[in-house]
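Chapter summary example.
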Amino acid sequence: MTDTASILNQGMRFFCLLLSLLALAQARVPTAHADETIRFDFTSLEQWEALSLPGVDKASTYSIATDESGETILETKSSASASGLISRSSFDPHRLPRLCWKWKIKNVYKNGNALQKSGDDYPLRIFVVFPYDAASVSLLEKARYESAKLLYGQYPPGRSLNYIWANRQHKESRMRSTYTEMAELIIVESGNKNARRWMTEEVDILADYQRAFGKPAPHTARLAIMNDSDNTGESSTSHIEYIELAQESAETSCSSSR
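The structure predicted for these 258 residues follows.
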């Protein structure tokens, strides 16, 4: 695989295709329950932009569904496919460092493996994507980004934190993507033990970025979502009830109530 293909592949490549569209899209303000939170409740997809992956013929699907209580949720379906969603608006992780979400999967992918490119598929992952900073990357990554700019006219986004529901728990719960050193994979859930159950997660973006990349996070970031199975050729249906960003000083954990 060439250097250019590497950066355009899983976890990074789909951002390159629609950079120009994202730059032109009007930023929309997410649902805010209070000054110290930003919350996505998935009553519609108007706050999200669809993302196709170069070289992938079949896209995953994202739609609004309802749960058992009649509340709206995001439904993601993947079958030997891959594509994602990215938020239209950005946020400052230094103001809102706590990322919380509630998700559920039907199953993990049997042949999934976070340590191999051939197994780099997940029924759900939540990305935090940061802007590219040429001064903070290796010469190899800089060359890749310059190649991507020649192809697309703009630099792709920079580093990312990928919170994944992995096929299984690995020896390490954090690892670099097999496609690029710019993406850190963080295993939040693994295996089928909690499949078909709603799981609530909470992470610290600033702490995770510092641990992953050894420096403070930038002040601008976007959220993204993906259910992909183009490498394994398998299928899964997954759901997200909400995603919330909150202040570090909040006295309670992120709320699951609407």
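To summarize the output: Residues 173 and 187 are 5 Å apart (CA to CA).
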